[in-house]
Predict the 3D structure of the following.
Amino acid sequence: MRVLVTGSAGFIGAAVAAELEAGGHEAVRVDVLLPQAHGPDADATDTHVLDVREAEAWVDLLHGVDAVCHQAALVGAGVRVGDLPGYAAHNDLGTAALLAAMHRAGVDRMVLASSMVVYGEGRYACARHGAQSPPPRSREDLDAGDFENRCPRCGIPLAWELVEEHARPDPRSAYAASKLAQEHYTSAWVRQAGAAAVALRYHNVYGPGMPRDTPYSGVAAMFRSALERSEPPRVFEDGGQMRDFVHVSDVARANVAALSSIVDAPSGSNVAYNVCSGTPVSILQVAELVARGTGTGPGSGHWPTVTGEYRLGDVRHVVASPELARRELGFRAVVGPEQGLAAFAHEPLRA
Ligand code: UD1
């Protein structure tokens, strides 16, 4: 396959391009090398330094490509209200412009990097009242240290369950809204252009090359950076938040599996898949696994501390079912969190 990878200089895009080449495929690398993500001196070797929002201007690069793997995006949760236009421009407009340019170039196959953030909260059930969709947690409950979602009907704490792809989307941040918008633009393009697409909803991705801690990075990088400063990782809430941490090498493999399936898929096919390890972990476990990877143990000065702090926009639990990707793409993660997070303690981060 000849695949154009957008965001090819990023944490995930670079791993996808490398995995394609390792499998004997060709990767055409495109990245705008945003200074806030890559620094002023980014290495542009093999990279076409181009903006997806201006894809019409570089449509020639798309000729002869079998599929596009669209990883370019502004990431993170969206910390400031002032971030809103950036998400809309890079993620919404960028995807729309890319799809239009692909249509002009006759490229009708796309794998889109989406995210579990499109779900908002994960899936919950009440022991008495069955499936429930809890509203955002209140500041009063969080201030009181009451972190679990409760049944809207009887008030007992809800149990988390595995989220499947048909769950109702509930984007709760600018980033989440833009990821869902990307899926929607792609669906419109599939219908209008008689094209085919796969959206991969990544869960918490970590591994070598992960960006260092900024207000926009995932928690694994924050824990890792705290340990490097010989400080204890600060575990928010009670540490019982459940997530699925998936290694970047598995995410790259999932992309190649999706690309291989999409090139032969019938026109009109458009499917979203969870990309996860299938082994849920709590945030406290994540902190302890990374800490142990540095050789530290309980009682040491930088063993993780559960602080009870909270971030108002955070969801409590979101844990995925890996079944659909397993069944339809043949994708199964090979790096479990115990092994992967311990190794992550020593792996290089992006400056
Ligand atoms: C993260 C990303 C999201 C991405 C998703 C899937 C961010 C901010 N969030 O969502 O954009 O789409 O993974 O890959 O990049 N926490 C601590 N200590 C800290 C920081 C956070 O305990 O220092 C806790 C948070 O309260 C939360 C959990 O760790 O409960 C996960 O936080 P984080 O990785 O930031 O966000 P996710 O919601 O999992």
Summary: The chain has ten helices and 16 strands. The CA atoms of residues 246 and 277 lie 5 Å apart.
